[in-house]
Design a protein that fits this description.
This protein is of the alpha+beta class. About 40% of the residues lie in helices and about 15% in strands. It is built from 26 helices and 19 strands. Helix 17 (about 415-420) packs across helix 20. The chain is globular. The model has no long low-confidence stretch (mean pLDDT about 95).
Length: about 600
């Protein structure tokens, strides 16, 4: 196979079985690869009765069809499983994952089931696959574990969990070679439940494309667009848009906090940073991180005061392997519950306050499951179940994934798409490849032009591009999601300076040149829609309902309150969801109809639902 490595590796940690099988070419084409293939495997392999932390749950790592080629910014590797944090789809991706090296070792996908009797790590060196003892690194933090494994497995890329994942905190992360992480939905917890400390991979086989000359021409054009983007300098300096929030000036970041930028494999943007505190209480503290500016927001509910406290806090999060947004949201929840006499000082164990030191204290308690940390380890849902449903008004979440901010009254493709995303709180998967990516700020001509670029019939364009602000936000979200899921399944990064230099036509050309299978724009867009419906069907199989496409009470205005789009009133959130479901061909409960699933070739899911 061109583009693909051509095999799936299946590991059962209970039996010690390691087997490889040929990748089904039909499935690879039907679901594009990467995220799409990982979603389909999750749907097929994980039963509705499978508990997230049971040996039967499957952890799936999958690379995109263009990953490992010369395609720029195409190093994202995708994980799916059943999330211990939400019970729905566990979906996350990373740019420095060992699974990218897995493709060079000859595997497009890795599935891991079972539970080892004792701590182990998985070592993959091309065709040589070993399940090795990890007792000597169990209990150690992610950085120390990575360093020790690098001595044992030279030149291997390493994904590992920290004490948080080992102790089954529901929102644990996986750290990738101390450079990036799989975040948000508890993939690290699933690894910990399997007694799997790490995955170390080295591959030397390489990837071939079907039409090297054509592929080189297309990738060169794409790369030139990225490096000439007007925001490249800002991304290399700050990791993206940062602004100047109190205590977090961009000038101070450059002067005191950051040493230099670095990039994921094959990316010309280089939006990640080597942190090196030049002075202050944590002088000399150094590590690598992705978009420190964004972590101001991710940790916002916990209230870190300044760069010093944020840098120290992020170190603590990464060493332990614990996710920031849920941790910060829980601290904010405790503060509000105390202020409103929902929880007392004796119930919490202390008077909760926001700040970097308070966040670090909560992390210690949570990872050790001590005091209030025993409940915090179960995530936001554990508190609502213990304290009562009314306390949810003090939480910001979507499908139990933490939000940075409460929703504004004016909605856009980002805010609505963040709700409808099967994982929750994933706005970059509803990204219009124009300017900032959100409908907010785009002109009616730009939105109509995007719809036309997808090849929509004029009747469809007219339906989507009518309403307040000259478009219907619910209907538009559907099409942006389909495009974004096709784009992400290829393996590309979702940073704005990358996405706006490619479109559906060029994506289809890249796929055809790499894989050697003719993939028209219409066919690629339909594949994106197919992938999205698979992710939705996974959630429905696990018990999701329409209410799960709504934000928590603490994240939103009263649900019946009129909303605005582009400054004009557009009804309630419920009405917007009705339009969205209708555009998708789903029923009013948010369930795909048999007709829609049959059109997409998902008859197996149609029979299930």
């Amino acid at each position: 196979m061109y583009g693909f490595a051509g095999k799936t590796l299946n590991v059962n940690l209970t039996t010690g079985s390691v087997k490889s099988e040929l990748l089904d070419e039909h499935l690879a084409e039907k679901f594009i690869g990467g995220m799409g293939l990982a979603g389909w495997l999750a749907y097929k392999l994980i039963d509705r009765r499978t508990a997230p932390l049971s040996p039967e749950n499957t952890l799936i790592l999958s690379t995109g069809p263009l990953a490992g080629t010369l395609a720029p910014a195409c190093s994202r590797v995708h994980i799916t499983s059943r999330s211990p944090n939400s019970g729905f789809i566990c979906y996350t991706n990373a740019g420095h994952s060992a699974a990218l090296m897995m493709k060079y070792a000859g595997y497009d996908c890795l599935t891991i089931t079972g539970r080892a009797e004792n701590p182990v790590y998985l070592k993959i060196t091309d065709d040589d696959v070993e399940i090795r003892d990890a007792g000597h690194i169990w209990g150690r933090d992610t950085w120390e574990s990575t360093d020790l494994l690098r001595k044992e497995a030279e030149d291997h890329w390493i994904d590992c969990i920290g004490p948080s994942g080992e102790n089954l905190v529901n929102y644990s992360i996986i750290l990738c070679s101390k450079r990036s992480s799989y975040n948000k939905t508890g993939a690290g917890t699933v690894m910990g439940s399997k007694n799997l400390k790490a995955i170390a991979v080295k591959g030397t086989k390489g990837i071939k494309v079907a039409d090297p000359e054509r592929f080189q021409k297309l990738t060169d054009e794409f790369t030139r667009g990225i490096v000439s983007d007007s925001e490249v300098k800002a991304y290399r300096a700050y990791g993206g848009s940062m602004g100047n929030r109190p205590g977090f000036s961009s000038d101070e970041f450059v002067a005191r906090v950051v040493e230099r930028p670095y990039a994921c494999l094959g990316c010309p943007l280089a939006c990640k940073h080597l942190i090196n505190m030049k002075d202050g209480p944590y002088r000399g503290l150094t590590y690598r991180i992705s978009h420190m500016g964004a972590l101001i927001g991710h940790n916002g509910s916990g209230g870190p005061e300044n760069w010093d406290e944020l840098v120290k806090l992020v170190e603590k999060e990464n060493l332990n392997g614990i996710e920031a947004t849920v941790t910060a949201g829980i601290l904010g929840y405790l503060v509000k519950c105390y202020q409103n006499s929902v929880l007392s000082e004796s119930e919490i164990g202390y008077i909760p306050r926001k700040g970097g030191e308070a966040m670090r204290r909560l992390i210690e308690q949570t990872v050790r499951r001590e005091g209030i940390g025993a409940t915090a380890a179960g995530g936001m849902r554990a508190f609502v179940e213990k304290i009562g449903e009314d306390s949810e008004m003090y939480l910001n979440h979507e499908k139990w994934v933490g939000r940075q901010l409460a929703l504004a009254n004016e909605v856009s493709t980002y805010s609505i798409g963040s709700l409808t995303n099967p994982r929750g709180a994933k706005a970059e998967f509803v990204h219009i490849p124009i300017r900032g990516g959100d409908s907010k700020g785009l002109t009616p001509e730009e939105i109509r032009g995007f719809c036309v670029s997808l090849g929509l019939q004029m009747s469809d364009v007219s339906r989507v591009c009518s309403g307040p602000g000259t478009f219907n936000v619910g209907r538009l979200v559907k099409w942006v999601e389909d495009y974004s899921f096709a784009y992400a399944s290829m393996g590309f990064c979702s940073r704005e300076p990358i996405m706006r230099h490619i479109n559906l036509e060029k994506l289809s050309q890249l796929y055809t040149a790499a894989i050697g299978i003719e993939m028209s724009p219409a066919k690629l867009l339909e594949a994106g829609e197919r992938v999205f419906n698979v992710f939705k069907a996974f959630n429905l199989k696990m018990g999701a309902t329409r209410i799960d496409d709504m934000p928590s009470r603490g994240a939103v205005w009263p649900r019946e309150k009129p909303l605005t789009v582009a400054g004009e009133e557009d009804g309630s959130l419920a009405q917007i969801l009705n339009d969205y479901y209708d555009e998708r061909g789903w029923n009013p409960d948010g369930i795909p109809t048999k007709t829609k699933l049959d059109i997409l070739g998902l008859q197996e899911i149609s029979a299930d639902l």
